[in-house]
Amino acid sequence: MMHLVMSKKGKRTTVALDKGTKADKELASYAGAKLEAETISWYKRLSKMDVSGKPLRDRFLVDGLSFWWIMESWMFDSIAYYPRMRDILWKTGAYISLIDKEKPDMITYLGEENLDYAVLKECCSARKVRFKAELTGKEEVSRQRMGMIYHFLNFRYVVRKLYGYLLPGKSSPERPVLVFPPHHWKHIFDPVSKRFIVGDPYTTPVVNALKKKVSTLSVDTAGEHMKEFGLGRMRQKRNGHTWFENYLCWSDFSAARKERKRLQKEAEKASKSLKDVDFNGVKVWKLFERQFYAYFEYRLMNHLIMHRVIGRMLDKVKPRAIFFSAETGDYGKIIFHLAAKRGIPVIAMQHGVLNLDIRCFREKDDGCPLPSVTAVYGQMDKDFLVKEGNYEPSTVMPIGSQRFDVIAFSDKLYDKKEIRKDLGLTQKKTVFIATQPIPELEIRYGFIREACNVLKELPVDVIIKVHPTEEEEPYRKLAKEIGIKRCIVTKSYDSYKAMYASDLVIIATSTIGLEAMIMGKPVMVVNFTGKPDEVPYALEGAALAARTPKEVKQRLEEWHAGKAGLEAGMKRYVKMACAYTDGKSSQRIAKLILKKIKP
C-alpha cells in the first residue's frame, strides 16, 4: 500500500493507492483513455530524435538494418532487469494528470522505493511541486535475468550444433519454400488429410497443402526456452526439416562480440544526447537508460548471431519464398530484411492479437522491415495495420487462419460426452480459463484467482488451460490456495477439445477468445489494470467485461443464470475479425505462397 498526501493552501488530502495493478487502476482515473496510445506514439517518435546529427535509429546500423527495430519491443514491453518504457511513460502521464488536476503545493509519498516513487519525484520536479518521501523500504521485484538467459542460449547453440552433425541441415536443389514454424510442436488436426498428425498449428497444415506443388524445408528454431532443445522432436520430423544452428559458424561469436562492442559505444553516445528528452514535460530518459543499456549487454549478442546465421542459411538454401509463422517480431524483422536484400518474397501469417502490440505500429517509410505479404485473420486486422502500421493495403490479405481450420470440423471430430469422461467432468456446466504468460505476475495470476474465488461457490467444473510457454505447477498451487475442488490444471490437453466441452471461456488477453467465439462459446475478459483491454472483444460487445473483482462475481452470476446475451455480438465480431471460418484457410495461404514464388 502507498499513500500520497497532497497539501494545498493549508488543506491536506490523502489519496490511498493500493500496491501494483490496483494502484494502476486508481491512477487510470487520472490517466485518460488515450494515454496508452500516446505512449506508443511518443516511443515511435523517439527513434527519429536527433543524436549528434543522426536519427537515433541510424546509430545502430548493421549490414543496412537498423537494430533499433529489433530492440524496440524488448525495451518497450519486456520486464527484464529494470522498468520497461511502457510502464514509465504510462505512470508519468498518469501522475502528471493527477498533479495538473489536483494542483497541490506539496506531495508527501508514503510507501516503498519503487517505480511509482521514482516517476512521481520527477513529475513533481517538472511541475515545481515540493516532494517529500517517507520510504517504508525497497520494493522486491521479480524479473527475468537476461544475462543468465543469454549464457543458456549460447549453450543451446553449442549443444545443438554438435548434435547437428547427426541431423545435418539440408539444401534442396529444387529451391524449396523455407518455412519458419513456432517452437510449440504437438499432435494437430490437419484439414488437408482430415486426420491428426505430428506438427504445429501454424505451419504444418500449410506445408501439407503445398507438398504436391513445391518442396518445403522447415527450420527448427527450438525457441528461446531452456527446455526446448527439440532433439526428440527432430528425430520424429527430420524429413523436410533442418536445424537453425546447422548454419552457425564458430566465427559468428567473435564477429558478434566485435559488433556488439561498436554498438555499445553508439549506445553511450545516444544516452548522453537523450538525457533531456521528455514526455509530458518530464525528463524520462534517466528512468529508462538502465534498461536501454541492459539490451546491449545481454540481448544484442543473440540478435547479432541470429542475423549472421539467417543470412548464411538463405545463401545456402536459396529458397524461392519464405513462409513465416508470425506477422512480425525480432526474429521476423531480421528475416524480412535479409530476404528483401536477396529478392526473396516473404509471406508472414498473423500469429495472435495485434491490438496495442508496439511492433505493429510504425510510421510510413521509416525503414522498419516488413514482409512481402502479411496474411491476417480478417478485415479488422487489415484496417488496423493499414491505419496504425502504415502498411500498404495491397500487402495485407484477410485470409482467416490455418489455426482455426479445425474448428470447422469440431462437431465431427469431438464428442462432448467422451471429453467430459476423459477429463472427469461431473457438473452440468464447465468453465475454461486460458492462462497467458503476462510479465506482471499480479496480472498473470490475479484474474484467475478472482474468477476461481467465485467459481468455487458455483456448481461448475473448471479447466485451467496452461499456456505452452508456462508450467502447470504454479497454477496447481494457486488452485490449492484458493480451495477450488472441481478444477483441472493442464498444459498438454488439446485446447479445442477442452473448449468444445466447456460453456464459458475466461481470458485476460488471448486469441483463445476469438477461437472460442468461432466455436460459439461465450467469453469473459477480465482486466483489473484500469488500462484499455489488450483484446477488443468486450469493447465490441462480443464478450462479457469484468474490470473489478465485484464485476467478476456479477458477470459470472449473470452467465450462470443464462443472462449473458452475447450471441448477436459474437456473430458480428467473428464476421469482422475472421474472414473465413470454413476450414480452408490452409489452402488459401498455400495458394498465396505459390503466387509469390519466384521461378
Briefly say what this structure is.
The longest helix is centred in the middle third of the chain and has 33 residues, at 285-317. The N and C termini lie far apart (65 Å). The chain contains 21 helices and 25 strands.
Distance between the termini: 65 Å
User: Helix coverage percent of residues?
Assistant: 40-55%
Q: How large a portion of the residues is in β-strands, by DSSP E?
A: 15-25%
Helical stretch tally:
21
Structural class: alpha/beta
Low-confidence stretches: 146-152, 223-236
Report the count of strand segments: 25
Radius of gyration over C-alpha positions, nearest whole angstrom: 25 Å
* Global outline: globular
Summarize the main sheet: 7 strands, parallel
Order of strands across the biggest sheet? 13-12-9-16-17-18-19
Average of per-residue pLDDT values: 85
